[in-house]
Write a structure and sequence with these properties.
Elements (H helix, E strand, L loop, with lengths): L3 H13 L4 H8 L3 H9 L10 H20 L5 H8 L5 H11 L19 E7 L5 E2 L5 E2 L3 E6 L5 E5 L5 H15 L5 E4 L6 E2 L2 E2 L3 H8 L2 E4 L9 H13 L9 H15 L11 H10 L13 E6 L5 E4 L2 E4 L8 E6 L3 E6 L2 E7 L7 E2 L2 H15 L17 H7 L4 E2 L2 E2 L2
Parallel strand pairs: 1-6, 6-9, 12-16
Antiparallel strand pairs: 1-4, 2-3, 4-5, 7-8, 10-13, 11-12, 13-14, 14-15, 17-18
Helix pairs in contact: 2-3, 4-6
């Protein structure tokens, strides 16, 4: 069977230019009968499926419907295996696509336009690359990605955990770097933000100080934050391949350098670069609050005898002079600070590892001094009279009329 292009060429050469059918057959390497059929045909050739395949699909349709009823998303290749299909795979796929909407309704996705300053879409990425965390181990850490919907401007940072304190600290650091706050922050049902229309502890206060609204999407609605999803894929395919990292800080340093270039790329959907659109996008946002929101981890605990406090599975030493008293613990993405009665009782670089004990040598020395003093208490002072002289105990015996002989009281 000849193609539509060959049919059109044959008719042009023979009918318009007068070339003989034999010459056309020799030029195209086909038979003269094929050329004659093309000249006689008034319409281009069209593939007609064999009647045998049509009848085969009709006989297999009830079984296909049974499979789609149990599993509407079953791939056509799996259906072919289940029903023992031996015909054309393309013909089976075409008919499965015709039947599938009856069992798996189509979920259309509308195109959304984004006003400047309206929203930033947020998500977490867990790259396969393991990063050393200082305890001799390498772990996978979450990367917080925030993308401005109007400008497609990408911001990202690796954070220690996906707990609420770290998520809020990461968002605040990126927004502070942007210099503005959108009217809405779009999240999926991330546990650290909240689930089932209920915010996690501290999230509502965070949004209130920023005067913004945190919107959690309904399940099975990935299109509503498709911009940050595409940014995630761009980061994983363009930033991570071929790179190695010595620490989370090194990861963030390399990420910042890459983002500076990534935001100068041309975005096909907008026809412009994010760095050129971020100005109007930022102008439509709210100003940063005059008082920074509470982020990270904040707690108040009574310091035990071992003078350590726990933050995110790691223990940090505290000045032992605060033992038995309440201390205030605050931790951001980089630092753990412990205060006692308004004074610093311990400042540590936050560890990204797990189950570690971080000790300040000064605290160990202070504990040693206190322990020595406890184990060697000073002798109690001896009793003296009004003039500061030592009094003989026999004076008390004579004063009370008590007499002793051979260790016995005579009265």
């Amino acid at each position: 069977m000849i193609t539509v292009e060959d049919w059109a060429l044959i008719r042009r050469l023979h009918l318009a230019e007068g070339e003989s059918m034999r010459s056309i057959a020799e030029r195209l390497g086909i038979s003269r009968n094929t050329v004659a059929k093309a000249v006689r045909a008034e319409c281009p050739p069209k593939y007609q499926r064999a009647a045998q395949e049509t009848s085969a699909i009709r006989s297999a349709e009830p079984r296909i419907r049974e499979l789609l009823k149990d599993n509407p998303r079953m791939p056509a290749s799996v259906i072919a295996e289940r029903i023992g299909w031996s015909g054309s795979p393309a013909w089976l796929r075409e008919n499965v696509a015709r039947l599938r909407p009856e069992y798996a309704p189509v979920d259309p996705a509308d195109r959304i336009s984004y006003e400047p300053g309206d929203q930033i879409q947020c998500d977490l990425v867990f790259p396969e690359t393991r990063v050393p965390c200082g305890d001799g181990n390498a772990r996978v850490f979450p990367v917080l990605v925030m993308t401005c919907s109007h400008s497609r401007f990408i911001m990202a940072r690796m954070i220690p955990t996906r707990m609420t304190g770290d998520l809020l600290a990461g968002m605040w650091e990126l927004l502070n770097g942007l210099g503005a706050v959108p009217r809405r922050l779009i999240w999926d049902n991330e546990t650290g933000i909240g689930r089932r229309n209920r915010y996690a502890a501290g999230v509502e206060a965070f949004a209130g100080i920023l005067a913004t609204r945190i919107v959690q999407l309904k399940p099975k609605d990935p299109e509503s934050k498709g911009i940050v999803e595409r940014a995630n894929g761009y980061l994983e395919s363009s930033f991570l391949p071929g790179r190695s990292f010595t620490s989370p800080q090194d990861f963030n340093a390399q990420l910042d350098t890459w983002l500076a270039r990534a935001n100068t790329r041309m975005v096909r959907a907008t026809g412009s670069r994010p760095v050129d659109r971020i100005g109007p996008d930022r102008a439509g946002m709210l100003a940063l609050p005059p008082v920074p929101p509470t982020t990270g981890f904040v707690s108040r605990v009574r310091l035990p005898r071992d003078y350590y406090v726990r933050v995110a599975s790691n223990d940090y030493s505290v000045d032992p002079r605060a033992i038995g008293r309440f201390v205030d613990v605050t931790a951001d993405l980089e630092t753990v600070r412990i205060t006692f009665e308004g004074r610093d009782a311990g400042i540590h670089h936050r560890s990204w590892g797990r189950g570690r004990t971080i000790t300040d040598p000064a605290h160990v020395e202070a504990a040693k001094t206190l322990r020595t003093a406890f184990q060697n208490p000073p002798a109690p002072p001896e009793e003296t009279d009004a003039l500061g002289l030592l009094r003989d105990l026999a004076d008390y015996d004579r004063a009370f009329g008590v007499a002793f002989e051979h260790g016995q009281v005579l009265s």
